[in-house]
Amino acid sequence: MDLGFFDLIFLWITLAVVMAVVVPFTGVLVRFRANYNPKGLHLDEEGTAVPHTGPVVKSYIAMFTRVYRLEGWAGLYKGLMPTAITTFALTIFVVLFLDADKPRRHSKYRAPDSGILGTLFYSILMLIVSLPSTIITYRSITTPAKLGYFNVMQALRVLLTPTERQRPWVLYLTPGLMAAEISHIVWVVVILGPFRRLLLPAFSAPEMKVEGVSVMSIVLYSVLAAVSTAVMTPLEVIATRLAIQRNHASPEYNSVHQEADGSDGEAAEDYGTDEDVIGLREEADPYLGLVDCAKRIVQEEGVMTLYRAWWLTFFGIWSNAFV
Q1: Tell me: the pLDDT tens digits for 33-57?
Q2: Could you give the angle at which helices 116-142 and 5-34 cross, rounded to 10 degrees?
Q3: Does 254 fall in a domain?
Q4: Domain span at residue 120?
Q5: Which residues have C-beta within 8 Å of that of residue 176, sequence separation ≥ 6?
Q6: pTM above 0.90, yes or no
Q7: Are 36 and 296 contacting, i.e. CB atoms less than 8 angstroms apart?
Q8: Residue 255 domain-assigned?
Q9: What element of type H or E holds 50?
Q10: Nearest to 244 by CA among 62, 25, 30
């Protein structure tokens, strides 16, 4: 069907309301998973072993209250502009080019039903289109700098290195990031989707019929959701860590610290507090890929760091079985 003027207005209003609600919770989730909190000692510039002095945040709720206390509402809405631009752009792209008369149900935990190969192609295409925006969004959330909503060029100078601005395609070469994202997509499309349609076919139908679902099917899908959570949550944590890891021309200076690059001669205003909201790894010692990131997180911070906010992943898997 063709979308009329009032349909578009309603669509934009709906998206704006959803973002007003979702952006703060997403921003807190990104910071909670990105927060670097090693258990052991580390070496200072003189080679002396010293304990880690960064913030220790042990829960999603604690991170939420910390962000609000240190940065207020402005901090909770960091990442709003790149999220809004990406959401509106992808919505227009889907409406205009991807079968607008039969809207596709698509989310992080559920790809549209177009067969396994078609769904894989669609999901990877959406990943390629949205990955640079995802990187910019995550970095804008974790940066200590206060970025203006409409000062795009200053924000890009803070969030991207000179190498990334001159050669934007290097964002796709961020070590391990594409591997983590594609692994997540493959699990959703090849494992989660087919088993959801097999176990809960009534929920996959255009008209959901609860009476057509057995208790055993719900139990089996709950087990599948638990296993999927165990697989997908580490991938999401790793993808968050890798997305905020910036790319420099020199491999020995691959920064994960989100501040204005000194070569630009421009420093962005911060939030006026001496206390960091989150801690980040030393920029001189980056993760080298997906496996290296997983190993270092386990060695330095403990295996449970890979499962931060796992319950949100589990809720996302289950909620998308009903829509």
Answers
A1: 999 999 865 555 555 555 666 788 8
A2: 70
A3: no
A4: 5-248+268-321
A5: 238, 242, 287, 288, 289, 290, 291, 292, 293
A6: no
A7: no
A8: no
A9: strand 49-51
A10: 30
